[in-house]
């Protein structure tokens, strides 16, 4: 972050108005005359009686403009101008050559070649000199203001780049830790399956072989153990399913949601037949996504509409809205509805609002929907009131 501090210091430095005018002439008299002309102007005058002295001043401070006599003893105006132009820090300072001779065009051209921006022939007309100097001071002020703005912009841009870099790092870290968690869930649930199968089969064997041979308590306890083991097997199965809908296994391609929908309904055949549910849909779009994962979303949402039915025959409608950057899919049912206070909870893995005796399930369906939808860069939510049906919405970016 050091650059921000440095830029701020630089900005402050540039903020100070540059009003310095460097007068260079080997004649004290000329210097005094020039000083007299510029007196009262909005400038700070620094005088030098030789090219060398001028260069020393230029090492120490900034100037808005340099008034440089050409004919000087020792280093003349041209040589001085050449050295000024060679140094990066002083290269852009405007130089006005002052001379009482060299009126010929050729010499004037030489002056420009040495970096003069203007040429004033002595005797100087006071008004002309004053207006030229104040024009250059104004120019220096504006340039400084622009430079300051530029520095601020650069600093802001660098800060933004730094922030973007940090965010990208964070996203990468999160993706890594998500992948690790998925791997952990997979390995844990996979490795738990085997010992659990032993527990289930031996408790089932116990139940079968010793039912009625021990006391009534024993029968009951064995039943609890069998029931618990079977449930745990199902939970582990679900956990495995959940860990498999990871982003790593995602295969993006063009997916026709009509096909996805038909696939989901085919998987729900038994429930549809059993309940006589009526499922309808609007024409569905083709999206970019993973078809296997999207089938799970349609299947879980429509399946829930069937499962959480009330007295009426379940009616479920799937509709789609075309928003500029995304599709919004809605799955509406006429079931028991949900209290909106559970808006977040029902999307959490293994969270249910009903007992297993009322409605079967483990609370994994919506967690999977959320994961799949988020894998696709979308959002999922619902609108509902108890007893008034529920509509689940999810988006798929285009
Ligand atoms: P499960 O269906 O196994 O219970 P879900 O994750 O699919 O698991 O749903 C979590 C809970 O959200 C359900 O137990 C139920 O209480 C509620 N729910 C989900 N969908 C609906 C719906 N369409 N109507 C009413 N309640 C619902």
Topology, please?
Elements: H1 2-15, E1 20-24, H2 28-38, E2 44-48, H3 51-60, E3 65-69, H4 77-86, E4 95-99, H5 105-113, E5 116-121, H6 126-210, H7 216-244, E6 253-256, H8 257-267, H9 269-275, E7 278-281, E8 286-289, H10 291-307, E9 315-323, E10 326-332, H11 365-375, E11 380-384, E12 390-397
Parallel strand pairs: 1-2, 1-3, 3-4, 4-5, 7-9
Antiparallel strand pairs: 6-8, 9-10, 10-12, 11-12
The structure holds adenosine-5'-diphosphate (ADP).
Residues 300, 304-305, 308, 333, 335-338, 346, 352-354, 361-367, 390 line the site of adenosine-5'-diphosphate (ADP).
The amount of beta strand, in percent, is 15-25%
Mean pLDDT: 88
Give a count of the beta strands, DSSP E runs of length 2 or more. Answer: 12
- Rg over C-alpha atoms, rounded to the nearest angstrom: 42 Å
* Coarse structural class: alpha/beta
CATH architecture of the largest domain: 3-Layer(aba) Sandwich
CATH superfamily of the largest domain: Response regulator
Figure out the total of helices: 11
Helix proportion range: 40-55%
Low-confidence stretches: 1-16
Q: In the CATH scheme, what's the topology name of the largest domain?
A: Rossmann fold
Bulk shape: rod-shaped
Structure description:
With 398 residues, the chain is an alpha/beta fold. It has three domains: 153 residues, Response regulator (Rossmann fold, 3-Layer(aba) Sandwich); 70 residues, Helix Hairpins (Orthogonal Bundle), CATH 1.10.287; 148 residues, Heat Shock Protein 90, CATH 3.30.565. It is 54% helix and 17% strand. α3 packs parallel to α4, α6 runs antiparallel to α7 and α10 packs antiparallel against α11. The chain is rod-shaped. The N terminus is likely disordered. The chain binds adenosine-5'-diphosphate (ADP). The site of adenosine-5'-diphosphate has 21 residues, from α10 and α11.
